Amino acid sequence: MIWPFRKREIETRASTGLTAQYMDTRRRDLLTDGQAHLSATVGTAAGVWSRAFSMLTPEPNTDLLTPDILAAIGLDLLLRGESCWHIRVEQGQGKLVPVAYWDELGNGRYHLHIARVNHTETVRALEPEVLKLIINPDPPQPWRGRSPFALMGLSPTLMAEIEQAVSAALPMAGKGLLPMPATIPEEQQQKALTGLRSGSLAVVSSKADFAHQTGGDRSELKRVELTPDLSRMGLQPIAVDLHQRIIAACGIPPALLSDSGNAGAMREAYRLFSLQTVAPLARQITPELSRKIGVSRLGLDDMMSSDTAGRARSVGALVKAGVELERAMKLVGWAQ
Questions:
Q1: Which whole-number Å values give the CA distances from 219 to 196, 208, 211, 223, 295, in the listed order?
Q2: Contact 328/318 with Cβ under 8 angstroms?
Q3: Where are the domains of the chain?
């Protein structure tokens, strides 16, 4: 029989920091998916893509593709190049459930891993039950999509490293050293340091005497700055150039996010983004949507409805070219 009042031994472990380091590395891998290194530029591109996809209009209209699901699809396609959803029926209603990660076993078989609050649900599914959308397919593996960040080389990494370098330099900003000759007594050194901490003058009453008697120089008490000089690295133009290159590689015209305030250029950039980025991407994923949930088209009507000035100029140009007004109105989408 075991004595019930025996004192239990408490397990102690050495604090080496390896667990924290491992978790930090794991967090970065999960958040960046190994390709999209987090930075404000990546966040800007993610926001633009998700908001643009949320404005797409499914035709015919369906309750499966709600704006929040379309926004999640846009975010997945940007960060991973793939978006996987499990098609299921709950309480007599169709539903798309996001899949965190999946194993494609071939012959139309999948292992789907769906994240829950306190566990991960694993589902075995067949190909008709899985909605898998991809962009930028990898030629050796055409069943896998690729994120735009996977095609950018080192640009996202450099952008993240520049921000990390600036962040690492901030703790040393405003700090410095105050060298003192060894001949100055300790109480005088403490008095000077106390004055510096309190914001008043650092006074060493017998500085001249010490310098004269020891042959030293008063410049020995000159403050040495420890603030890193980042201006020599020229990070500002490099960061601006990288920002524009990453944004452009994501299919977002830099003029759309320009701080110059040129409204005309921003309108043209918005039109270019809608027609040359969002529309082709919507067409790429439409065949899979058509096969699985019956959506034959993702329209841009809601995105382009705000382009009143552009439509008005188009109507004027068509009318001047000899097109009837009613037909011109239909061509620009203003027909009743």
A1: 17, 11, 10, 9, 78
A2: yes
A3: 31-155, 176-225
